[in-house]
Write a structure and sequence with these properties.
Blueprint (H helix, E strand, L loop, with lengths): L1 E3 L8 E7 L7 H17 L5 E7 L11 H4 L10 H10 L1
Length: 91
């Protein structure tokens, strides 16, 4: 996990780059990762814009519950655990 904090003229931002645990990793590793990610995000409350760049191995199906995240299109017929976890984190 690494981050960059460029100072903007009109807005401060944080860019966070992460590699999430693969689908083969156990729930304990995934839970630990998302707890750490949440702590890092909460550490920067004064920044108004946060970008998360992730190699997250996610799959999100095209369904109404994911439409806010995926928009009107998705390439997958089924969601995987990593996809659901990242959506839950973002909300």
């Amino acid at each position: 996990m690494s981050y960059l904090v460029p100072r903007g003229g009109w807005c401060n931002i944080i860019v966070l780059n992460v590699h999430t645990p693969s689908k083969e990793k156990g729930d304990d590793k995934k839970d630990s990762f998302y707890e750490e990610l949440e702590q890092v995000f909460d550490h920067f409350p004064k920044y108004r814009v946060k970008f998360l760049l992730a190699d997250s191995n996610i799959k999100l199906e095209w369904d109404d519950i994911f439409k806010q995240t995926t928009g009107n299109q998705s390439l997958h017929q089924h969601s995987n655990d990593n996809g659901i976890r990242i959506v839950n984190f973002a909300n």
